[in-house]
Amino acid sequence: MATTTVYPDPSVESTSVDGIAGKDGATSSWTDLRGAVGDVGTDNGASLQVFAIATTTTDVWSRLYRNAVLFDTSGIDDGDTVSAATLSIYPTAKDASTITVTLNVSASNPDVNTVIDADDYTTSKWGSVKFATGVTVADISTGAYHVFTLNASGIAAVDVTGISKFGIRYEEDIDGNTGPAWASGGEPAVTFSSADTANTTQDPKLVVTHAVASATFVPTMQIIM
Amino acid sequence: MKTDYKFWYITRDDNGFIIKAGIRYYEGDITTENEKDLRTLENRLVTRYRRLAKLRTEIYTTAELGQIKDDDELRVFINGELKKDKTRTPVNEQKETSLSVLRNLTIK
Questions:
Q1: Is residue A218 part of a domain?
Q2: Residue A225 included in any domain
Q3: Which of A58, A208, A224, B22 is the most buried (most CB within 10 A)?
Q4: What ipTM describes this predicted complex?
């Protein structure tokens, strides 16, 4: 088994990207906030952030950030089979807030593989399946990598011939069934390093365990007369 | 003008040896520009290194790397490659070519 560790491109992007697409200034329910048209987009800052803001009006929310993290996994040999994968982020700050939310990984599908902008907030560009066991903002540690071990759905999202597209989001956004329990003025947030950060020690990374697909052995018998 | 690199991918064999590494080289500079604060969404001036152009992508194999296992050994090798660029200066974080010194600098 070989392992390949893959990183998103910083700006200036070549084949992949990481960035934030978000909605700010809403006065809406969690459901409507998720379905809103985005107005925040950036892919060249040194940090990424998962963020939600509850207003002081009961069950009214004003902001939600989604993070797309894309990896060019084409360096893995075509035809290799993937048996395991982890996705790691390096949190640098957090606000556990009075609202309990859980960080997790999903699929993402921005319009362009090298750009994240506000248009990419559209819910249809994000997966609704959780790819790992989540971690609450209260429990996540800063100053060290947090490793999400991908489940079968997450492993299936690794594309050894092209770009593997993931999202770092709140579970309450991914499944979309029920929002987090609202609390007045709550602002749960996790800030983590992007590929644009200095050096190579804090970038998001995807570690893929893979092997050459075994050839099927078909025994044949020859009768020599 | 400054220069730096970023890892694209690093492949290791069964024994953990690095057998292939894709590296992207950039040029850039330390500039002061308006950036939107993610929390307040207000513009603020931020001074930091910004990449302005990708210079090239290199795929290194054991032919260039030899028998190395960890990221810091790879960094030392690539820091040495960066130094060969006589028209640009490596960023401060990627100047060290001594493994023992670099290991003390690297955030684990």
A1: no
A2: no
A3: A208
A4: 0.94
